[in-house]
Each structure stands twice: as structure tokens, then as C-alpha cells.
Specification:
By secondary structure, this protein is mainly alpha-helical. It contains five helices and no strands.
Amino acid sequence: MDSPPFPGWTIWSLRLFATAHLAGVLGQAALAGLFVTGDVDMLTWHRNNAGVTHVLLYLQLGAAIGLWRPGRGPLWPAWASAGLVALETAQVALGQDRVIALHFPLGMTIFGLSAVLCAWTWRGLRRVAA
């Protein structure tokens, strides 16, 4: 069996951080739902989880860059992760300014994009590396 075209550590680090980031984004949705149903304490949890999730996204970006260089993998996951950084930064600003009409749909967009990227790390990246 041939070895993958790029080192396994680059694949697994991207999978780890993309999955952890997606879990954080899902947690954000759950915490927001609990807050809007009346549990006001969840707003603090939502804010704190946002910080952790954003750090995980920066780690995902670093892993995606590692997949590209030195891993010789595709560049687009790094660009996608950088785009998510921009979207999440806007998301934090909208949340702090209480612009809920944009904050909610942007959160769903971030969830969808994060899910697609995470799924690719487990399914598409396996095909590329095989």
C-alpha cells in the first residue's frame, strides 16, 4: 500500500481541530437556544464558548496551513478556514452589538460551512490521501 501524498499528522491535526470547532459551533447553537427560551445564565456560557470556539478555529486554520505547507496538501481548506475566521469575527461583533437579525442567520451559515469542511476532512481527505 502506498503512503499518503502528505504526512498523516497534517491530516489528523486538521480532523481534530475541525471536529472540535464544529462541536463548539453546535454548542453555540444549543446555548443560544437555551438563552432565548428564558435561561438568561446561558448568555454567559454562550459568550465564553464563543471564545473557546474561536480559538479552536485558529488552531484549525493553523492545521489547514500545515496540511498545505509543509504537507503538500490542498490550499483551499486554509482559505476556507480563513473565511470562517472572518465570518466568526463578524459574528462576535454582531452578537456583542445585539444585532440578532444578522447574528442568527450568520450562525447557521457558519454551522453549515463548518460541517461541510469537517465532513471533507473525514471523507474527502481520505480519498485524496489514499
